[in-house]
Design goal:
heterodimer; A: alpha+beta; 5 helices; about 20% strand; B: mainly alpha; about 65% helix
Chain lengths: ~290, ~550
């Protein structure tokens, strides 16, 4: 009996501890996810603002239609029940009504498509960029090469912070990290207010480069180059994650974009071009070797 | 002989001239559409449970941030196999089960056109399912590429990828044969007087679905064969180093994939179109419109595939075309929803379990339709592609859509299949439990997707923890509800434990299936019936 009670008590304690570890008291990450976030990231580019506006428009129209249609349905469920004595009508077709509820939604859809078209055209226009950076997806990290514009020649390899990867394996017990799985060793650094063109490709399988606060997402496809662009409106740190299943560490190759003021960016470029390039090239080679094992 | 578990064949159809088969031979050599329907439904339910266990493992892992139960490789295998099993093992075979049971009875035919090929179509699925299920135990584990099998990640998979490709070929062959059977049966074996425009809507939706299947299953076969030859026979269809293109895989896959999701919803629409008029005691509103809307949806489904590929880098004109075409599909779909509500309007409704699931379907499927419309907008899709908003969307349309419609059809037709009335109180319990737990599971995923949580992630930033925990709790409740369904609804009916079902348990149900006894005898309509003007009743 005593041993049994002990077992039950320790079992319950274990359960309580386990449930307690479910509560992670984290804070919002500026430029990244917020706790119990309901909507998209606060926009840091005009494109992202446009996406917000479009989404609100769609939500309001859809919610309006939803309330109208299901208002009618629930009214009918309430009033047209056998249990309240309602007798069934016999009508079962009406060409006029069918035409009406085909044409009206068709018009609503056209009305939705017009602002969407403008947004699509804007987000695909990568011409006249101030800065061009190639983002290469590797299994499982990102490589950034500055190709044109201020900073060209810089090469960065950006990997998830190793401590966080180890922490994941151990179940992230008791940890309260605001940037969990988003912290990298070398972020991508860009200047504020400049049009940055990101060229994506991959060295192995398809990955996807995404930064929700900028409103961008572009697949990184081996053997092909694709591009997207952004112009960050304010300095800060912005985060994204790989968005195309690329193997076992798919969840562990984040994107961290550091947007600096123009003067700070120039200072950063100067600090990079001398010392870092050689070291990073060696790291790229070393990591490519280890991925191929 | 009826479809209940009846080992001694006591409930005999006295018009049988030959001995109806008994024992294991009855099932292994089945050529009777009712028996084959039962086999498909039980197989599909088993796969639903297996796929469900995989889902619960996923949700258990995602309950908290950090890896607790599985490593990321196994996690990717779980998500892949959950998708493949549910799509190819649960939803599609279940609808074929409904088709087998109901189409011949609803058109006044004695059986399917090709009864023996029907048997082959079913039994092919067993080795395929065994291969898929056992792939977890092969070296390297199950395929871990997502059910969408994108190249070139498929090149990195072990031998289970090849087993999976073989299994999909077999399942595809089974589907194609089944679809040919359905088309030929419907076009040739309707009772005299049942013109196409007098057929029940369930038959119409299956006729259209069968054509879709015949058109696109071969395309999937092409895509997975190219994957197989790239893996082992030196081709480079999807390998850029050899002049190939990984995006071509996506085009071919989604050319199959998009009609595939309509294949998984059109028969659901058909079931709802049978159930709502029965419980509103009013004919389906706008029958002709419903037929044309279904056909429009099917045709449009061929020209929208690249809305799954907005982020691959296609030119502006491509994005615009696919966006417009996809938005257009919402029009005929909306027409169908309006027609169902118009059927309810000024009817005389009662809310037995089939009607609860049908109304639940209309409500929750429409929510899934709205999120689909939002996803179709390319600029918004850039935020949401490959994230949890997409996961929420397709679970709303596939679970709250297809699965709810199947529950509606099962409750509606179980009395006809088994001769037993299920317990109405327990049915209602199943409905509410399922509806609530479904929404607890999948509604938070919309927020996760908007907040940027990517899909197919074994671990996630901690800010996503609360909604993930909520979704996991809901998932377990949902799973238990379906086990409850099997043990407290299906099994008692199959065993004959319950009040005897009348021939027409639903007073306003129309259709030739209600003109035969409950349970339906082993052979029905061996002689083509004489039909009334509406083709809804047998006369003379």
């Amino acid at each position: 009996m005593n041993a049994m009670n002990k077992k039950i008590t320790s079992g319950l304690l274990w359960l309580a501890c386990w449930v307690a570890t479910a509560a992670h008291a984290v804070n919002d990450l500026p430029g990244g996810p917020a706790v119990r976030q309901l909507n998209m990231h606060p926009p840091a580019t005009k494109v992202a603002e446009e996406q917000h506006a479009l989404h609100w428009m769609m939500m309001l129209i859809c919610m309006g239609i939803f309330v109208a249609v299901f208002g009618v349905m629930f009214y009918s469920i309430w009033k047209h029940r056998k249990s309240v004595g309602h007798q069934p009508a016999t009508f079962h077709e009406s060409v006029k009504v069918e035409i009406a509820w085909t044409i009206v939604p068709f018009i609503i859809v056209i009305f939705m498509a017009i602002p969407a078209t403008k947004a699509v055209v804007a987000q695909k226009d990568t011409s006249n960029a101030d800065l061009t950076i190639k983002a290469t997806g590797y299994q499982w990290r990102w490589g950034y090469e500055y190709l044109k514009g201020e900073g060209n020649g810089i090469s960065i390899l950006s990997s998830l912070d190793n401590e966080q990867r180890v922490l994941s394996n151990s179940g992230a017990k008791g940890a309260d990290l605001d940037n969990y799985l988003l912290k990298v060793d070398h972020p991508l650094v860009v200047p504020v207010g400049k049009k940055v063109r990101i060229i994506t490709t991959s060295a192995d399988v398809i990955h996807a480069f995404a930064v929700p606060a900028f409103g961008i997402k572009q697949d990184a496809i081996p053997g092909f180059v694709r591009d997207t662009w952004f112009r960050a409106e304010k300095p800060g740190d912005y985060y994204g994650q790989c968005q195309e299943l690329c193997g076992k560490e798919h969840a562990y190759m984040p994107i961290h974009v550091k947007v600096l003021g123009e003067a700070e960016y120039t200072a950063w470029v100067q600090s990079q071009t001398t010392t870092k390039t050689a070291a990073v090239s060696a790291a790229v080679v070393a990591s490519a070797d280890s991925t191929n094992k | 002989m009826s479809a209940v578990l009846d080992p001694h064949g006591h409930v005999a159809d006295h018009h049988d001239h030959h001995h109806a088969p008994v024992g294991w031979r009855r099932w292994v050599f089945a050529t009777n559409h009712k028996d084959i329907g039962t086999l498909y439904l039980l197989f599909a339910f088993t796969m639903l449970m297996f796929g469900g266990v995989l889902a619960l493992l996923i949700r258990a892992e995602l309950f908290q941030p950090g890896l607790q139960i599985v490593n990321p490789e196994l996690f990717n295998q779980l998500t892949t196999m959950h998708g493949l099993i549910m799509v190819f093992g649960a939803i599609m075979p279940a609808f074929v089960g409904f088709a087998n049971w109901m189409i011949p009875m609803q058109i006044g035919a004695p059986d399917m056109a090709f009864a023996r090929m029907n048997n082959f179509s079913f039994w092919l699925m067993i080795p395929a399912a065994a291969m898929l299920a056992s792939s977890f135990f092969m070296p390297g584990g199950a395929p871990a590429t997502g059910w969408t099998l994108y190249a070139p990640l498929t090149m990195q998979m072990g031998p289970s990828m090849d087993a999976g490709i073989f299994a999909m070929h077999i399942l595809g062959a089974s589907s194609i044969m089944g679809s040919i059977n359905i088309v030929v049966t419907i076009l040739n074996m309707r009772a005299p007087g049942m013109t196409l425009m007098k057929m029940p809507m369930f038959v119409w939706t299956w006729l259209i679905t069968a054509y879709l299947l015949i058109a696109v299953m071969p395309v999937l076969a092409g895509a997975i064969t190219m994957t197989l030859t790239d893996r082992h026979f030196g081709t480079t269809f999807f390998n850029p180093a050899g002049g190939g293109d990984p995006i071509m895989f996506q085009h071919i896959f989604w050319f199959f994939g998009h009609p595939e999701v309509y294949i998984m919803i059109l028969p659901a629409f058909g079931i709802i179109s049978q159930v709502v008029p029965a419980f509103a005691r009013k004919k389906l509103f706008g029958y002709a419109s419903m037929v044309y809307a279904t056909a429009s949806i099917a045709i449009l489904s061929f020209i929208v595939w690249a809305h799954h590929m907005y982020t691959t880098g296609m030119p502006v004109t491509g994005q615009l075309f696919f966006m417009y075409a996809t938005m257009l599909i919402s029009v005929p779909t909306g027409v169908k929803v309006f027609n169902w509500i118009a059927t309810m309007w000024r009817g005389s409704m009662t809310f037995e379990t089939p009607m609860l699931f049908a109304v639940g379907f209309i409500f929750v499927f429409t929510m899934g339709g709205f999120t689909g419309l939002i996803l179709s907008m390319a600029p918004i899709d850039l935020q949401l592609q490959d994230g949890y908003y997409v996961v929420a969307h397709f679970h709303y349309v596939l679970v709250a859509g297809s699965l709810f419609a199947m529950f509606s059809g099962a409750y509606y037709w179980l009395p006809k299949w088994t001769g037993v009335m299920y317990n109405e109180g327990l049915g209602k319990l199943h409905f509410w439990w399922t509806l609530i737990s479904f929404n607890v599971t999948f509604f938070p995923m919309h927020f996760l997707g908007l907040a940027g949580m990517p899909r197919r992630y074994a671990d996630y930033p901690m800010q996503f923890a609360d909604f993930n925990a909520l979704a996991s709790v809901g998932a377990f409740a949902f799973g238990i509800a379906q086990v409850f369904f099997f043990f407290f609804i299906v099994l008692p009916c199959m065993r004959g434990h319950g009040p005897k079902a009348p021939q027409r348990p639903w007073e306003a149900a129309e259709g030739l299936e209600w003109e035969v006894p409950s349970p339906a005898p082993f052979h029905t309509y061996e002689v083509p019936p004489k039909l009334n003007a509406d083709a809804t009743k047998v006369i003379g």
